[in-house]
Amino acid sequence: MPVARHVLTHAAGRPSRLALCGPQGELTYAGLAERIDGAARHLRGRGVGPGALVGIALADPVELLTAVLAADLAGATPLVGEHAWDRERWDQITGEDLAAVLDEPLPHPAGPAVPAEDRPGDLAWACFSSGSTGRPRAVVRTRASWTGSYPHLNALTGIGPDDVVLVPGPLVSSLYAFAALHALATGATAVVPGRWPGRSLAACLARSTVVHVVPHRLPDVLQQPGSLRVAVVGGAALGPGARARAAAAGVRVVSYYGATELSFVAVDTDGGGLRPFPGVEIEVRTGACEPLGEVWARSPWLAEGYLAGAAGPLRRDGEGWVSVGDLAEPYRAGQVLRLRGRGDGAIQTGGATVVPEDVEEVLRKVPGVDDIVVVGLPHPSLGSVVTAVVEAGQAATPPRALLEATARGGLDAAQRPRRWFVVPSLPRNPTGKPARALVAARLAGGDPEIRRLA
């Protein structure tokens, strides 16, 4: 069933229940249902219907979710992007397959109800893998691969229609988009500031019973928990002592491991360790004499792949198993899954996954950059911090200001290096490619040849 149809059902049963609270205003379920139905009618009038891919580029999160649900009700596939992107950027991401880019609030004319067929196998949702600007990577999935997991998440967290769910991040992120849509499908109230609320966090938490958050934001939440009872935490491993601090604040933590391409893989509801999310099978495939292996999953929650033939870490075998290259200790069914990072060099920073090659592709174009390697260095709260090591001659080293300006112009915030170094010559493997692991090891060891770029 389309998520929009759930919203319409909630509107019929509890019309005055608050559905959305955003920075510009609020909508009851009755008001949201009226807008969704009218906007879907408008889209159908524009020829946007089943099979169409629709870019959603609205700055206001309430208007954005209205457009997403209208596209869903019309049978189209909504893809949320940044509101500042131009059409060239959208075409780069989608392969020019867009039926429309919605960058203005949709009109919602009155008229007969828009019929919505239950087609769970439709490619009904598309979202971005975190940190995908250098080589844009949009992930497409069936409707059921998200909505089918909703009851399981409710059972694990206790989220229900009387909850107020804070979604304190940008809806272009699949983590936050899922959280907002799940809340609306459940009949709860979704508080959607559209970004981290900063000084208004306490006010948001005062009314919220549930929050979806990435690990490095959990300490901020626990300082002023308000009426919070559950924190759903995803995006990276929890730091030591996090659950104890949450318990002291009266907040239950449900943490999970997953990926945009995989959705939920494993969940920890009580601090006992990650175990398979309902419906998920897990394998850790190790080679001979290797201490770690790759995590492979098989479940109903997997995505179909990437739009426009984009390359990415998602791999499949012939038996329905998929992997994005995450590493773990050897695992057997019934055991706890012990993750150990990414095998492809991807950087987990503040809940986002940054692919180093995406960042390198943008920065390699800067005059004076002979080559560049991007790695993650450990950070106490972010997990890792994106770090660039530039190969450049002493006389032609590009100024840091130019590198940072290029990063701002071509990369999303999570992708931009926070630390910059320069080296006369990067170490390379036998094929001539920069040896990323060796660069990271030399940085960690304080190699004097690698100097900080002022």
Tell me what the structure shows:
It is a single chain. The chain is α/β, with parallel strands linked by helices and 454 residues long. Helix content is 27%, strand content 26%. It contains 13 helices and 27 strands. The chain has helices at residues 3-13, 29-45, 61-74, 87-94, 143-147, 150-157, 174-186, 201-207, 218-223, 242-248, 356-363, 400-410, 436-444, and strands spanning 18-22, 25-28, 53-56, 77-80, 98-102, 125-128, 138-141, 164-166, 189-191, 210-213, 230-233, 252-259, 263-268, 275-276, 281-286, 293-298, 305-306, 315-316, 322-323, 326-328, 339-342, 347-349, 352-354, 371-379, 383-391, 419-423, 451-452. The strands form seven sheets. It has a nine-stranded mixed beta sheet, sandwiched between helices. β11, α10 and β12 form a beta-alpha-beta unit. It is globular. It starts with a helix and ends with a strand. The mean pLDDT is 88. Residues 359-433 form the AMP-binding enzyme C-terminal domain. One of its GO terms (molecular function) is long-chain fatty acid-CoA ligase activity.
